[in-house]
Amino acid sequence: MVKGTIPVHLLTGFFGSGKTTLINHVLASIEKGKHVAVMVNDFGDVNVDSEVIGHGHAGLPEVHSVAGGSIFCSCRHWEFITGLHALAAYKPDFIIVEASGMADPTPIKTDIKIASTLDKEHEYVHASTACLVDAALFKQQLDVFPVVRRQVKHATTIVVNKVDLLAEPVEPKKATIRTAIRRINKHASIEFTIDSIVPVAMFLAAGTPGDDEARPDRSLNEPGNQPGTAVLVASHPLDRAILREYYESVKDKILRFKGFCQLDDGWYHVNAVADQLRFSPTRAPREKTEILCIFLPASDAKKAELQDSWRQVAG
């Protein structure tokens, strides 16, 4: 039997770089009649991104959520493989995989080969890897987190997002970012943008990744170095100013702050990294406010500290 081929397009990028926003732009621009499936990977018990994928667009995609850690960790890669199998059942024209912020994409080719071997009906093809970086935070993240270098290294397309957050003069800073990227990856195309807007053709374009096939890297994603998470919960409306004040008090202790919250004037999707805190109105009410905090290293003490300080704010 001849297997049907399904292209797999991977999207990587550190926490808060704008991956979910980029996917929503791509979904809104896909030509009519194309059927897209999306796998969303995140940390923690609350997979926020899967709930906002396709929001506001007609013809919602099939979405498969994998929460609790990186799909490229040795402890999770089977969930990536079975996730591909689950999405293939919907007969998509292609699959987009949104990796977690700490994902090291090194194992993707091996895992896709395994997925194809175990599937009697479908052959999965690693079509492209786009890496999203935050222009304002790239230098700092590159210096501190080795996984950022891996994400850039294994990309076929690199999207430098949030250029509008760079201080003037912008052009020399863009040149510095481009030079830093080229030291790691000499082949990938580079696009500078704001609000995660890129041409669909660029996102889906095949290319030559910057990896070295002769000396494959060992994945940085292992059970012992996964981030910790804390879910902050409230059952009543919160004051926006107080929520901002809370975030300011913890932002230097965490990597990511995102979720859904009920404020005095309605429900919002809250999204924050470093000094960037945004509230986006959402029409989808929930039973309670749930905000996910992600931090390194994983620590029960840090989780308890975050939740204790939250209770003083949320009551």
How would you describe this protein?
It is a single chain. The model has no long low-confidence stretch (mean pLDDT 89). The relative contact order is 0.16. The radius of gyration is 19 Å and the shape is globular. The protein starts with a strand and ends with a helix. The protein has 315 residues and is of the alpha/beta class. Helix 5 crosses helix 6. It folds into two domains: 4-204, P-loop containing nucleotide triphosphate hydrolases (Rossmann fold); 227-314, CobW-like, C-terminal domain (Hypothetical Protein Yjia, Chain: A,domain 2), CATH 3.30.1220. Helix 7 links the parallel strand 6 and strand 7. The longest helix has 15 residues, at 170-184. The protein has helices at 19-29, 48-52, 77-88, 108-118, 138-144, 146-153, 170-184, 200-204, 240-250, 300-314; strands at 4-13, 36-42, 62-67, 94-98, 122-134, 157-161, 189-192, 228-234, 256-263, 266-273, 276-281, 289-295. A seven-stranded parallel β-sheet has the order 3-2-4-1-5-6-7, sandwiched between helices. Strands 8-12-9-10-11 form a five-stranded antiparallel β-sheet, with helices on one face.
